[in-house]
Amino acid sequence: MNEQIPLPYDVAAWAESRCLVSTARLLAQRRVHFPKEHIGMRVQFADGTSARVFRETVIYGTPQNPCVLFVEFRLRLVRGAWEHQLFRWESLLNTPLFVGFPGFVSKLWLANDEHDIYRGIYEWDGPRRAEYYARSLWRVLALGCAPASIHYWVLPEQRRDPLLATPHLLNVASPSRGNEWWRVVEVT
User: Fold this and answer.
1) Which of 8, 55, 105, 140 could form a disulfide with 123 if both were Cys (CB 3.0 to 4.6 A apart)?
2) What is the mean pLDDT of each successive set of 10 residues along the chain, which is 188 residues long?
3) Angstrom distance (rounded) from CA 131 to CA 94
4) What residue ranges do the domains of the chain occupy?
5) Whole-model pTM?
């Protein structure tokens, strides 16, 4: 897990195609929701950065094999407050690219941090499914992001909301010490 390489183009394209079909079905069934309870919440990370949640996307259900997925990226051509705001508005159109993946439960969309890095904090049903999604997403992100800025991290056996409520539990020894852009240290 967390080998940090994208899927081959054809595999990622096929995965995204299946996702779009599944997303259409979920939207028709009105199963995709955008709750407001986490909007405005600020998440601070071990690398010293922080970002605010600007959107949440949920398909209600209880995962059998929960995990939390963190994704980060930096957009190539978006600079300045106005352009970042436009991206955040436009990003709603990206919803069909992830909600239809098998195992998706929820996503917190985080605005750009002090280094213009965007993050997503997802809850997923199944670590392998989460990683498959992240490696598929990589191909989509690479179209508008600096390739070296795309990363993901999967935390098996975790639920998103309990993790955010008790981030101190992540203060255990980590194999990624020194590169902990994903490790939440405080939520306000």
Assistant:
1) 105
2) 78 94 95 96 94 94 95 83 76 86 96 88 97 93 87 94 88 58 93
3) 18
4) 9-187
5) 0.91
